[in-house]
Amino acid sequence: MIGLLKSMATTMKHALDGQTFTVEYPEDTPEVSPRFRGVHKFSQERCIWCRQCESVCPNDTIQIVQDDQRNGEQYNLHIGQCIYCRLCEEVCPVDAILLTQNFEFTADTKDELAYNKEQLKNVPWYKDIDPLEAREPDRGAWIGEGEGEVDYQ
Fold it and tell me: Averaged over 44-59, what is the pLDDT?
C-alpha cells in the first residue's frame, strides 16, 4: 500500500509541475533520435543490383526483378511488412539504400504501402539529416576507432 501511495505521489508531482511531455503534432514536429529507422530511401544511381538486400531481408520485404543483362528493372519495397531491422542498409556495399528519419507515411490500403524505385527516390529526408552521418555511431563500433591501425582485409 505504501508503494502505491509513493507512485501516485510521484505521478501527481509530475502532473502538476507544468512541464509537458507531449508534442502537438502536426503543428510541432517531434524530436527524432538520430538512430531512428524510418522509411527507406533508394538511390538507383548507386545501386549495383547485387541483390544482397533482397537476400538478407528476413521477411521478403524487398523484391528485385532484373533483366537478362542483370540490370535492375524493378525494385519493390513493401513498407507495410518491413520490420525496420536495417539489415538491408548494413549489407549494401555502396549505400544505395538507407533508412531515413521520415516517419510520415500513411496509406488507406495495404497495397498502397508497396513502393517502387521511383517512389523511393522521392522520399523526403526528415529535417534534412544526412543518414550517413546518422550512422556514424554504429560505424565507429565496427570500424574500430580504437588505437592502432585498422585492417580492412
Answer: 88
Q: Which residue has cell 556514424?
A: 136
Rounded to whole angstroms, the Cα distance separating 41 from 44 reads 10
Q: Is residue 146 part of a domain?
A: no
- State how far the Cα of 73 lies from the Cα of 44, in Å rounded to an integer: 10
Task: For residue 26, say if its preceding peptide bond is cis, omega within 30 degrees of 0.
Answer: yes
Number of structural domains the chain divides into: 1
The pLDDT tens digits for 71-107 are 667 888 888 889 999 899 889 888 888 888 888 778 8
Phi, psi of 12 (to 5 degrees): -65, -35
Buried b (16+ CB within 10 A) or exposed e, 31-65: eeeeebbbbbbbeeeebebeebbbeebeeebbebe
For residue 8, is it within any domain?
A: no
63: left (phi over 0), alpha (psi -120 to 50) or beta: beta
* R_g over Cα of the chain: 21
Query: Which three cell numbers mark 23?
Result: 508534442
